[in-house]
Structures are given as C-alpha cells and as structure tokens.
Amino acid sequence: MRHSATSESRAARAALIGVALLFLAVFVVLPLVAVFSEALKHGIGAFTDAITTPDAMSAIRLTLLIAAISVPLNMVFGIAASWALTKFEFPGKGLLITLIDLPFSVSPVVSGLIFVLLFGANGYLGPWLIEHDIRIIFAVPGIILATVFITFPFVARELIPLMTEQGRDDEEAAISLGASGWQTFWHVTLPNIRWGLLYGVLLCNARAMGEFGAVSVVSGHIRGVTNTMPLHVEILYNEYDFVGAFAVASLLAGLALLTLVAKTVLEWRFNLHRTGVSH
Amino acid sequence: MITVQGVTKQFGKFAALNGIDLQVEDGEFVALLGPSGSGKTTLLRVIAGLEFQDSGIVLFDGEDVSSRPVAQRGVGFVFQQYALFRHMKVADNVAFGLSVRKRRNRPSRKERRARAEELLRLVHLEGLGDRYPEQLSGGQRQRVALARALAVEPRLLLLDEPFGALDAKVRKELRRWLRELHEQMGLTSIFVTHDQEEALELADRIVVLNQGAIEQVGTPEQVYMEPETSFVASFVGETSCMPGGLHVRPHDLEIVETGGEAVVVDNVFRKGGEWRIEATLASSPGELIEIDLDASRSAPAVGTTILVRPTRGSAFDVEKNSS
C-alpha cells in the first residue's frame, strides 16, 4: 500500500536498500575491516611494535603537531571570515565566498606545488629564504602552510549558512543593551554557533591529520623529520612492510571512525537545538 | 523629546528615507504606520542608532546624538522576532544589560537576579526566570524581550512590529497591556506597525509613512477622520472612491430614494453589528463601493440597483497625492 506520492513499491524499496547496502559493504566496510585485520595479522605484539618504532612515533608526533597548529588557526580564520561575510555588507562579498571554496576545488597536488613555487629553492621567495636561513619547503613550516591551505574551508563553510540563517538581530540586541564587541561575540555569537563550529573543527581536524597530496609535495619525506602519518604509511607500504603500513593506517582509520561518531552525536544535538528554536 | 530633522537614508539606489522631520514629546506613544518598504523600520532603527542616516540629524532633548551608537543613546529596542539569547535562561536574558556593564557600575550577581525577578513580575512572568526562551509561548517571549529592554532603564522604548508574530487574541491582550505599561512607567515609546487597527487603538499619535516620506502626522482621530492625502485615506481604514475623487468610509454612505449615485449590489453580509454591502458603481463597473448599513434596516437584495449618497468624505487634488 502506498502511504504517499513519493513512496515506492515494496520490491523497489528492497532493491534500492539492497544496492545501497552492498555498495557500502564493498567500498566502505570491507576496506575498513581489511585495514584492521592486516594490521593485526601477526598479532597485537607486531602491531604495537610497528607503531612504536622511532620513525612511526615521530610521524605520529608530527601529525599531532600539524593538527594542533593548523586547526586553531583555521578555527580563528573560519570564524572571522564567516563573521565578516554574514554580518556586514561590502562589495566583492560574493567573490570572497567563492574563493573560500578554492582549496576544495583545486587538486591537493596543485596546492602543494603553489607553495613550492613560492618558497622552494627555485621559487619566488627561495633565494631570500636561503639567505636568511629560513627553511619552509621540506620542513615543518611548509607542511603547516599546506595543511592550513587545504583545510581552511571546513569551518567557514559550516558557519556561513548557519550565521546567515541566524541574522544580525541577536548581535544588535546585545549591542543595544550596552555590550561591547567582545562581549557580544563571547556571550551571544559564539554560543549561537558553537555546535556548527565544533562540527567544522572536527572535519577540519580529520582532514588536517589525513591530508596526503599537498603535504607529500612540500614535505620531502625525510624520515623522522618531515614524515606525517599518511606519508609514513606510504613509505612502509612501498617497502613491503605491510604490517607496519596497516598498523599506522589503522590509527588513521580509527581516528576517522571516532570523528564520525563525534560528528553524529553533534549533528543530533545540533538539529535538536535548531528545531527547538525554529517554532 | 525626540527630534528628527531632514533625515535621509539610501540603500544602494533605493531611498529608504526621503527627508523625514518628526518630533516626539516626552511620554508620548507614537506609531510609525505604513506598508512594507515605506521606511518605517529604517526610521526606527535610525532613531535607535542601529542604522545611521546619510544626512539630517537626530536630537534627544535638544542634544545631537546622530553619531552616537545605540548603546550610548539610552534606548530600549524590542525586535520583531524578539532576538532572545536562546542559550541563556530567561532571567539571564533580562539581566544581560546589567551583566555586561563595566565592573565598577555592574550590580552584583544577587542584585542582578533580584532586578530580573522584579522586571519579570512587571511583565507578569514571575517564576519563569529559570526557563529557556524556547520553553515559552510567543506572547511570553515578547514580554521577556520587553523586560530585557527595560532592564537598562531606557528613556525611550522602540518596538519593531511588536505584535507581528503573534496570533490575533494574544496580540489584543498584549496591546492593552503594553499601553498600561507605557503609562505606568512614564515611558516615551515609538513602535512600528503595518496594522492600522493596532496604530489606531494604541497610539497617541500616528505617523503615516509611504515611500520613505511622511504622509501625515496626527492623532488616530485626525488620521482616520481627516486624512490629508489619498494615500492616508486608502491606507488607514476602508475607503471607497466615489466619482469626482471623493474618498468615503463605508459608514459615511447612506442609502437614499433620490439624488444619489447609482450602485449595483454584488454581495451583502453581516459584519459585526452591521450589514456590509459590496457594490459597484453603475457608471463605472470596475469601482468597488462598500457601504455599512445599520443591522436594524433590511438589507437590499443582491443584483438590485440602489442610490447612495456620502454624508462626509475627503477629496484630494492631484498635486497633493503625488507629493
């Protein structure tokens, strides 16, 4: 029996759900299971050995450092950009909104090359940097720059629609009651956007830790120095150290799963909050 | 006393305010009435300091406040959608204006709480201080917004479509209550509305706006009975346009045996204690004429032609209409 104009027949529904599940199983669940089973193939001992080698530990430390620097930077940038774009009117606004999406639309390899072109030994600023003994490319600063560039749309893209929807009334009310700009931001704007912000930061963090392409171009793959976790996985894999590669990969995969759980919880809270307000 | 002199405001190519001159006396309750796009909300926001005029000045008690931001004007502003802080309890919303003061002027937490309770009592919401805004009805939220605006002891209360989002019954109750509050607290209040009935019932004086300019300023009586422009006549209350450009209210038309204008009856229905007759001019069938007839009289049948004569009305010359 049909309950609404858009509901399909029982058979069609079962077929659609079946196809979707099969697809998910083959392309998402199976690889995930494979990662963990390969990592633990030679037992938990081999797994812990693989992730506690000095090179692996260094890669983990570097990845955490990169995320710890680039995520807060992009959080501040994302809030500032969304604030400017949604609370004020100025010419060129549309262009700026489009530009924020640029890192998403351009290939990460190209993003990496941009930095090599700018800061590399033969790049525009290369000679000057060498003269002053500042290392950016094939060093940690380059990896941070590339990661910040790649992940900067996450927070802003999450906040812009949210702040547009919320409008300026709350801020104007706060200011009319005598609040300063900072007070308005801390007591009114930030609480209003907190769930969206957290969500954006979470996605930003996941990408900052997992980025391969752009980082690969600028890092130089120096073991124990400029190797992040994704790069380390690749190196181990190319050296036929499958347990090692999958052990480090499983850490990244575990992080992704954790991010998904956190995202689901947030989304649930976020929607609850929004529907509570809209009536 | 609030004085607005020669205020203009452009948004891009759109002239929102076109040279506004207005004076509001202390203790007055003034309505800014007009259709959407007439500039009424912009004018309110300019007076508040939420928007700044392109030219002209705004004076509070003779003092030019044109360049002062909203916080330094001593106004309370009530937003159309209330703009309550949804993550704060009602009491914290009300006390917000006190808690953001500079440390040396800031009342203690206990004093702020007591002040919030006092204000909630004033707006008949005692005991609801620990709720969140989303747990309140529309009318209650509106009163919280009002209490919050009053907490900073403004000399001027500005309300943007204060009843716009409420259903008819709540709106009526709140209107009467707001009027009482205004008297009781000795406030000067300006509110924006597109609802002529609201303006007529509530305000001491009505400012009718159209296309960024003031059409008429007057008491509800004056605006209703002696409209100065055809816009006011048609926007405030119901009017029919008789041959010769005469604007007539439905109850200012009487049915006569001879010497009236011939109209064809299209529809007759009860409207409150009267008959409302909808008719069209026999001489120009496109023109709708509305007539109110005492319910004790028998209503004419639909399709018949009757003669009507205006007992009073307003005529406007073309120059004035287009000004």
Task: Please describe what this structure looks like.
The complex is a heterodimer of chains A (279) and B (323). Chain A has 14 helices and no strands. Chain A is globular, with a radius of gyration of 23 Å. In chain A, helix 6 packs parallel to helix 12. Chain A folds into two domains: 39 residues; 219 residues, MetI-like (MetI-like fold). Chain A is mostly helical. With 323 residues, chain B is of the alpha+beta class. Chain B is built from nine helices and 18 strands. In chain B, the strands form four sheets. In chain B, strands 6-7-8-3-9-10 form a six-stranded mixed β-sheet, sandwiched between helices. A five-stranded antiparallel β-sheet of chain B has the order 13-17-14-15-16, with no helix packed on it. Chain B has a four-stranded antiparallel β-sheet with strand order 2-1-4-5, with helices on one face. At the A-B interface, helix 10 and helix 11 of A face strand 6 of B.
Summarize, please:
The complex is a heterodimer of chains A (279) and B (323). Chain A is mainly α. Chain A is built from 14 helices and no strands.
Residues in helix, % of chain B:
25-40%
| Chain-averaged pLDDT of chain B | 90
Shape of chain A: globular
Overall mean confidence score, pLDDT of chain A: 87
Can you list the strand order of the major beta sheet of chain B? Answer: 6-7-8-3-9-10
Strand-helix topology:
The complex is a heterodimer of chains A (279) and B (323).
Chain A: H1 10-39, H2 43-51, H3 54-87, H4 93-100, H5 102-105, H6 108-119, H7 126-131, H8 140-151, H9 153-166, H10 169-176, H11 181-210, H12 213-219, H13 229-238, H14 242-278
Chain B: E1 2-11, E2 14-24, E3 29-33, H1 40-48, E4 55-60, E5 63-64, E6 75-78, H2 90-99, H3 109-122, H4 138-150, E7 156-160, H5 168-185, E8 188-193, H6 196-202, E9 205-210, E10 213-218, H7 220-225, H8 230-235, E11 240-242, E12 246-248, E13 253-256, E14 261-271, E15 274-281, E16 288-294, E17 305-310, E18 314-315, H9 318-322
Parallel strand pairs in B: 3-8, 3-9, 6-7, 7-8
Antiparallel strand pairs in B: 1-2, 1-4, 4-5, 9-10, 11-12, 12-18, 13-17, 14-15, 14-17, 15-16
Helix pairs in contact in B: 2-3, 2-4, 3-4
